[in-house]
Structures are given as C-alpha cells and as structure tokens.
C-alpha cells in the first residue's frame, strides 16, 4: 500500500505533467480500444484481466442498459460487483437487474453485489473538496481487497468521477481516474466509468476529454453506435463527419454573426437617439445609454419594467394602439408624442416603432427609436410666435427672392388679405424692379456675407399702387437656401422728415430775403460814401466797417444757401446745369478764389488732368470750395493745403489734402450725414452747420461719381472725389442715362 500511496501522491501535488508521466510509465500505455462488433459491447472477453473502461453516455436509459449488461454478466459469471452510483442510478439499475431475473437482495446479502452511494463514498476521501490519495486507498483499497479474496474477479462501476466533472472540478475528476489506475496496479478489477456526454462542451473540453480517454484502456461508444453493423458504422461515421463540418461552418457563421451583433450593439450604444426593445406585452428588454440620458432611468431600472413607465398617465391608451399596429406587422413612423422623464419632466419625442421578427417571421417584440424634440419644438414655437406677432412684417423668401411665406403684419403693410395674397400678391411683390434692384442683391449679399444684411430703406408697392417707404433687413436661415426678411414701415418717419425739410426750406427763404435787401442797401451806402464830399479819413473808416459787414453777409448767405440746398436736395429739387466742364480750369479758378480769402494757408495744385467732365460747374465748384474751406478751417496750425489732380482712362480724381486735426475712423461715414459734426472738445470752436459734406456728396453722386475720406485723428485728412470722364465713347450712353436721371426729381 505504501508504494501505491507514493505513486498516487505524486500527481496529487501536480495534476498536470506528473499525472501524464505516471500514466505513461505505469498503466495507460495500453492503447485505447473501441469495441467494434457484437451486440453486447461489454461482453465477457472485454473485461478479461484489469480493464478501465469509459463510456460517454447520451442519456440515462442507455447507461443503465450498458451497466446492467456489464454487472449482469459479472453476476452470472460469479464475479463480485461494486457499484458506486447516485441513488437514482442505483434505483434504475436494481430495477433493471431484477427485471432480468437477478435476486439482488440475495446478492447484497452474500456480498457479491456491493451498492455504495457515490457522493457519500467520495466524501470520505475528499480533503478540501479534492480527492486525497491516502484516503482514497484507505476507503476503496479494503473494499477491493475484500472483493478479490478467494481469487474472485471484481467488476466496479464508479460514478464519482462523473460527479466531480459535473461540479466543474475537471482536474479533480482526472486525478481520481489516475488514483483508480494506480489501484489497478495492485488489484485486478474491471472498472467502468461513465460521464454524461452533454457535460462535455466541444472545443472547451477538448483537451480534458482527450486526457480522460488516455486514462482508460477502453472507450465504450454510446449504445446507438455499438448496435450498428460495420456498414452502418461507416455510414454513421461519415454522417458524423459531415455534421461536424456543418457545425464548424455554423460556428464560423455564428462567430461572424456575433461580430456583426457586437458592431450593431456599439452603434446602438453610441446613438444620440434613445433605442429600446420590448416584448409585445410592453416589457422592456433592452435600453441604450441615450435612453438613459433622455429619460433619466438606467438600463437596470428599465429592463424588465413596462414601457408605460415613461408614458404620461393620460397616454396609456397610446401603447395599446401602437402595439395593435405592431402585431399586424405595421411600423409606426416618426410619431410625435409625449413622454415623462424620471424626474417628472415632460418631453416631446418623435418615435419610430418597428416590429421585431424571429427567423420564421413571427413578430415577438418591437424596437423603438425615440428622438427628444422638446427643444426643437420650443424653438419652432418661439419663432412661430414671432412670426405671428403683428409688430413687424416678416416674410420667408428663397434665394431668387420668391416669397414663400408672409405673416399678417406684412400683408397689412402691403394691403392684401391672406386669400388675395395667395392668389395674386406674390406676383405684385416680385415685380422685376423690386426684385432685381433691391431684394435679390440684398439676399445675395446676406448669403455672401455673415448671413444677414444691414437694415436698408426701400419702397414697397402697396396694393393701392402707393409707394410705401420701408426699412428691410434679411437673415439667412441656416442649412437652407431661404432667408427671413423683417420689414418695418417707416412712412411715418419719412413724413416727419419731409415736414422738417419743408420747414428748413421756408426758414431759409425767410432768412435770405432780408439779407438780400440788406446787401443791396449796403451796396448803395458804399457807393454814396465813396463820393468826394466825404472826408478822406471818415471814408476809410466807414469803408472798413462796411467791408467787414459785407464779409459777414457773405458768410450768412453761404449758410442760407447751404440750408436751402439741403432742403431742395431732400425734396429732390436741386437744379443742375448740364455742360462740359474742363476740370483743370475749374479747379484752378476755385483755388485762386479761395486763396484770396486766406492769409494763413497756401493752396497748392499738384498735377493736371487735361480732361473734362459733364455736369454743373457751379455745383462742382461748390464742392471744391467746401472741401478747401474745411481743409483751411480744420488745420489751424498748418499752412498748406494740397490739391492733387489725377486722371485714369475712365475717371478723374480730385483730392484735397490738409495737415490738420484729422478725423478718427468712427466718424468717417457719419460726417456725410445731414447736420453731423464731430463734437470733440477742441472742435467746438469751429463754426459750421454740418451740411457742407452732405451737399457735396449728393452733388458728386448726381454726377455719377464717388466721394470719400481717408484720415486719422491728428494726421490730417484727404477728401477725394472721382468723376466719370466725358471723352470715353463707352460712357456716352451711360452719361446720357445719367442726364435723363438728373432731370427727374427724386430719381434715387
Ligand atoms: P461743417 O464744416 O459746417 O461742420 P461739413 O459737412 O463740411 O460741415 O463737415 C462735417 C464735419 O466733418 C465737420 O463738422 C468736421 O467735424 C468734419 N470735417 C470736415 N472736413 C474736415 C477736415 N478737413 N478735417 C477735419 N475734420 C473735417
């Protein structure tokens, strides 16, 4: 027994390489044989000498049949039988043996049939759940010794290895098999082990299965196999091979399917939309992370719960209605409805629900994809409210300027009812002039720019045919080719401005009349006083005073004229002469005149144009005078004003440069507006009314030219104007058009 224990204790310490070592050296080199013929595979000669047979049974019934043959043969031949089995196997085995005529009670009483409970027996040699070699020998050794006494042969059925295997203790089962083999070195017995075939999981247990087979001298195939003829076996073998191949293909397919499923699962998880599945009765079976974010419930909370948990109570009916459609195989597409978050907040969602079918096309559940559209709807409602508000006219237009939608305020502005508008107004609105000259350029510049236009004044045609002054701004609607337009009626403001202009006009007239008389009388006085009777001294004094009065009246006249010009300009009534104007001559004349009025500055003309423009020499002269007087006025510490003359093929350019106060950028646009003056502390002392540049700009515009300023604070200023040249043939036509335009008041 000690030698035996030594042999057995080695593998117990290491159940891997060592166990195979013992097996190879001592016992299991016996090649594994598979019984090939005969009705009863466990026939007498199979168990001659020491054998260790293993059977992987397909089911209990076949195991019991095989066992009763194995034990029955033994009993019949006068062998002793030790049966270590589960209670259920004992029961079935005994029934089977008794049915075939054995008196088991007698056999037990005489010690030829020794039934032992597998679990209890095994417990006697387990230490910490593992079979212990010493204890095994102590428990099983005496049993076999007793049974082999008198030279009797012994047959053993051992089910303990199967129990260990079923408990997941595969290494322990293999070790126990090795213990049995070691015991077989000392005693001669036939040992029959059986494992349920279903406990072996193909590839997972492949190595252990092979190991078990190697630990046995014979492998008994399932009954269904042993009962076949040679031919049938070959067929079965081929069939099994085919099945194995098919299974291999199926495994590969299922692995690929699993990969696809994993990819799909990743998509579902990363989706921004809530994706969930449910049974037909509404029990949730899956719940992605977006569902958790949108509804506030975790997957753990929702899987197994009913989907109406996220329904508002007044909407439970909806569930039945949806499921009725799903049962019929009809999907529910982009259905907008309400749901409730875990925190009680109500949501607006757009849901798409589709039936889920099994491989036979039978519907067994539904998948739901839900998008939270609460914010989107809120924004829509907001803009809808703005659209419906009657504070401002709003329209939506496509990129060609075709009006697609308008609000009531807009219709009120143009005097149409909704019905009339539908029928005819878009035609009126999209009149070529409005479209081409205003709306379309505005839309294009908004699209090309930062997506919106500055407010611009224009005229809309009222249904009555009346022109309606409006202020319009546009903003592009992102990701669409449309834009939204805002229209403000400014007719009130315009009327007010008109009244103010009329007032200024009248006031100017009233001022001018007495000044004209005053100037006339002064002329007379001057002539009288210059006669010889007056003393030389008195004459000179009076003449000095009169000259000053004249200069003052000159200034007053200019101011009044300017006021009058602004008024006429607003009314579109500024009168222009039309003639050819030699630019160099005009500039020189004006410069000479202005030079006479100043002792502080020298006016220097640089360059010449040798060209002529078409227009009003007085008005153009007025512009130059204004620029030169400003240059002198706003450069008190300088002594030079430069006048640059330049001409290209198309235009002439006159630039007046001073070296004075300059103008900071923020004022560059505004100084051209009526009555605008830069009101810096230092400038307060400079006289003026803020209309000179307004008039100048208007005059240049009327001559088809441009007018602009380049300046920085304290760095002087350059006021430039450009006028189209008269000589170029290509311009004859446009100048004619311009002339036509200038004849018409309010042409702009
Ligand atoms: P006014 O000279 O009567 O004020 P203008 O229309 O001619 O009116 O000019 C408007 C404003 O532009 C002036 O008040 C002044 O602030 C500014 N400005 C015009 N010319 C110059 C200049 N050469 N240098 C600096 N500022 C100027």
From TrEMBL:
Enzyme class (EC, first level): transferase
SUPFAM superfamilies membership: ATPase domain of HSP90 chaperone/DNA topoisomerase II/histidine kinase (SSF55874), Homodimeric domain of signal transducing histidine kinase (SSF47384), PYP-like sensor domain (PAS domain) (SSF55785)
Biased composition (Polar residues): 1-16
Region (Disordered): 1-20
Intracellular or extracellular location(s): Membrane
Domain Histidine kinase: 506-727
Pfam families, per database record: HATPase_c, HisKA, MEDS, PAS_8, PAS_9
Record bears the keyword Transmembrane: yes
InterPro entries linked to this entry: BphY/WalK/GraS-like, HATPase_C_sf, HATPase_dom, His_kinase_dom, HisK_dim/P_dom, HisK_dim/P_sf, MEDS_domain, PAC
Superkingdom of origin: Bacteria
Keywords, sorted A to Z: ATP-binding, Kinase, Membrane, Nucleotide-binding, Phosphoprotein, Transferase, Transmembrane, Transmembrane helix, Two-component regulatory system
Reactions the enzyme catalyzes: ATP + protein L-histidine = ADP + protein N-phospho-L-histidine
Segments forming domain PAC: 333-385
Membrane topology note: Multi-pass membrane protein
Coiled-coil residue spans: none
PAS domain span: 260-330, 379-420
Protein name: histidine kinase
Provenance organism: Ktedonobacter robiniae
């Amino acid at each position: 027994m000690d030698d035996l224990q030594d042999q057995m204790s080695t593998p117990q310490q290491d159940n891997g390489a060592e166990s195979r070592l013992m097996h190879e050296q001592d016992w299991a080199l016996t090649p594994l044989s598979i019984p090939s013929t005969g009705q009863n595979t466990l026939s007498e000669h199979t168990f001659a000498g020491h054998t260790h047979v293993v059977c992987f049974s397909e089911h209990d019934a076949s195991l019991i049949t095989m066992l009763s043959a194995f034990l029955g043969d033994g009993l019949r031949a006068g062998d002793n039988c030790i049966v270590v089995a589960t209670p259920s196997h004992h029961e079935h085995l005994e029934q089977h043996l008794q049915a075939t005529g054995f008196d088991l009670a007698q056999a037990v009483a005489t010690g030829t049939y020794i039934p032992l409970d597998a679990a209890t027996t095994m417990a006697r040699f387990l230490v910490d759940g593992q079979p212990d070699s010493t204890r095994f020998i102590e428990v099983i050794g005496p049993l076999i010794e007793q049974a082999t006494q008198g030279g009797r042969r012994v047959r053993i059925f051992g089910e303990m290895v199967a129990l260990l295997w079923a408990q997941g203790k595969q290494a322990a089962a293999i070790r126990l098999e090795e213990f049995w083999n070691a015991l077989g070195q000392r005693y001669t017995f036939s040992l029959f082990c059986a494992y349920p075939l279903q406990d072996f999981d193909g590839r997972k247990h492949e190595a252990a299965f092979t190991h078990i087979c190697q630990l046995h001298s014979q492998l008994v195939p399932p009954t269904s196999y042993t009962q076949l003829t040679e031919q049938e076996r070959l067929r079965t073998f081929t069939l099994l091979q085919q099945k194995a191949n098919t299974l291999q293909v199926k495994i590969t397919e299922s692995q690929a399917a699993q990969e696809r499923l994993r990819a799909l699962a990743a998509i579902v998880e990363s989706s921004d939309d809530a994706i969930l599945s449910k049974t037909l009765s509404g029990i949730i079976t899956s719940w992605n992370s977006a569902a958790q974010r949108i509804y506030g419930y975790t997957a753990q909370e929702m899987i197994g719960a009913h989907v109406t948990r996220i329904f508002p109570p007044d909407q439970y009916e909806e569930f039945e209605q949806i499921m009725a459609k799903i049962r019929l195989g009809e999907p529910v597409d982009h259905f907008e409805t309400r749901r409730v978050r875990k925190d009680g907040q109500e949501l607006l969602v757009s849901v798409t629900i589709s039936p889920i079918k099994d491989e036979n096309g039978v519907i067994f559940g539904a998948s739901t994809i839900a998008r939270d559209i609460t914010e989107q709807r809120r924004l829509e409602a907001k803009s809808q409210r703005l659209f419906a508000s009657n504070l401002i006219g709003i329209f939506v237009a496509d990129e060609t300027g075709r009006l697609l939608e308008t609000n009531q305020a807009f219709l009120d502005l143009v005097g149409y009812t909704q019905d009339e508008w539908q029928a005819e107004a878009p035609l009126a609105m999209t009149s070529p002039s409005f479209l081409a000259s205003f709306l379309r350029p505005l839309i294009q510049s908004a699209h090309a720019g930062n997506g919106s236009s500055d407010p611009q004044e224009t005229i809309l045609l009222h249904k009555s045919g009346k022109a309606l002054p409006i202020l319009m701004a546009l903003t592009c609607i992102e990701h669409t080719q449309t834009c939204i337009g805002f229209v403000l009626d400014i007719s009130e403001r315009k009327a007010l401005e008109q009244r103010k202009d009329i007032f200024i006009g009248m006031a100017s007239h009233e001022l001018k009349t007495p000044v004209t008389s005053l100037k006339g009388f002064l002329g007379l006085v001057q002539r009288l006083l210059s006669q010889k009777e007056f003393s030389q001294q008195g004459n000179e004094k009076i003449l000095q005073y009169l000259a000053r009065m004249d200069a003052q009246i000159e200034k007053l006249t200019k101011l009044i004229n300017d006021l009058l010009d602004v008024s006429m300009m607003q009314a579109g009534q500024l009168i222009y002469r039309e003639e050819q104007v030699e630019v160099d001559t005009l500039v020189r004349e004006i410069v000479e005149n202005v030079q006479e009025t100043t002792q502080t500055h020298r006016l220097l003309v640089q360059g010449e144009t040798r060209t002529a423009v078409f227009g009003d020499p007085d008005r153009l002269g007025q512009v130059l005078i204004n620029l030169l007087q400003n240059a002198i006025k706003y450069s008190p510490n300088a002594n030079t004003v430069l006048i640059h003359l330049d001409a290209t093929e198309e235009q002439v350019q006159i630039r007046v440069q001073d070296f004075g106060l300059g103008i900071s950028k923020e004022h560059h646009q505004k100084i051209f507006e009526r009555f605008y003056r830069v009101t810096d502390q230092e400038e307060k002392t400079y006289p003026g009314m803020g209309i000179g540049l307004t008039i100048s700009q208007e005059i240049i515009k009327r001559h088809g030219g441009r007018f602009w300023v380049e300046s920085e604070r304290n760095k002087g200023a350059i006021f430039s104007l450009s006028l189209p040249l008269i000589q170029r043939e290509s311009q004859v036509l446009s100048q004619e058009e311009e002339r036509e335009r200038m004849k018409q008041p309010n042409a702009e």
